Amino acid sequence: MPKRACSNYSSGMIKQRISDPALLDHLSHVCHDDRHFYILNDGQVRLTALSATLMLNEMQSNFHTGTLETYVLGKAYIAGALLASTIKGNDRLQLTVECGGPLGGYYIEAWACGAVRGYLKQNPIPLSKPLESSDLSPLYGPGFLTITKILEGEKQPYTGQIMLEYGNLAKDLASYYQQSEQTPSVFDLSVQFDKAGHVSGAGGLFFQVLPGYKEETITQLEQAVANLKPLGAYLETGKTGEDYVNECFSQLKPQRVGGGIVGFSCPCDRNSFIGYLKTLPQNQKDDILKNGPFPLQLVCSNCGSVYEFTKEALESLLNDPADKEKK
């Protein structure tokens, strides 16, 4: 992901290095992370197809998530990148799930340009016993799903919220679009793992029925997605999202109308944390200088970037005469 992912921010985030040789070799043979937009069935359906294998591996590396946590948060990242296909320019959106189950929820932020960041509220997810299936609904429990769009030039964000009905992000997102926007939609969020617990293939699909659609279009779409090959398993073979769409939806006559890159990106940087340290009350500054720890590590909750400050750097920052004169 380019450091300057959107025109209104640059990313100074710190990505942990992926060091596993087998994983690095695999990543060199899978398709790049990207997003493609299609019109299906002669203009009656809009499809966004996403490939996100590297994005999820970088996310897993920065947050040190286990397989379960990577599976949950990874699907949320995929969803965020898909949802961001509905905005433009420097717009961004936030996907928030708050729930009473052990998962607790998560927060995702995604920009129209394809940058995605976000975190789990519980990492690791506390379990009293191992899950017996891939059904994640016991992790969710009762709760709410909220989508907030922050649109450039608008004074107030647009926010919609529904109660969780399924404890399945794809189904709950479809329910959100049906309830909040009266738009029949289908989501498919797919994450595949290798034997070492790394993401070997990941991607997603977002179908939206467009105004003026014919009733039989819903049936055709349901039939097309009923027996889909898992997208993550397809992508781990080295094929692309474009290959998948052309192979699986040929009967719906896909027409590509655009696309772009996606990636794990956060606008945090070291200077932001320096600014935070400088604004601390003097007694807290004195406590840090006296008791440490050294080096002091500050972590961005949105991306897991770790910013280290040595004792010498802290003495220089926190004893800055210019700051004291301002107070």
Key terms:
327 residues, 12 helices, six-stranded mixed sheet, Hsp33 domain, CBS domain Like, 26% strand
Mind explaining what this structure looks like?
The protein is of the alpha+beta class and 327 residues long. The chain has two domains: 21-264, Hsp33 domain; 270-326, CBS domain Like, CATH 3.90.1280.10. It is 33% helix and 26% strand. It contains twelve helices and 13 strands. The strands form three sheets. The protein has a six-stranded mixed β-sheet with strand order 7-6-3-4-5-11, covered by helices on one side. It has a five-stranded antiparallel β-sheet with strand order 8-9-2-1-10, sandwiched between helices. Helix 10 packs antiparallel against helix 11 (311-318). The longest helix is centred in the N-terminal third of the chain and has 17 residues, at 67-83. It starts with 20 loop residues before the first helix and ends with a helix. 38% of the residues are buried.
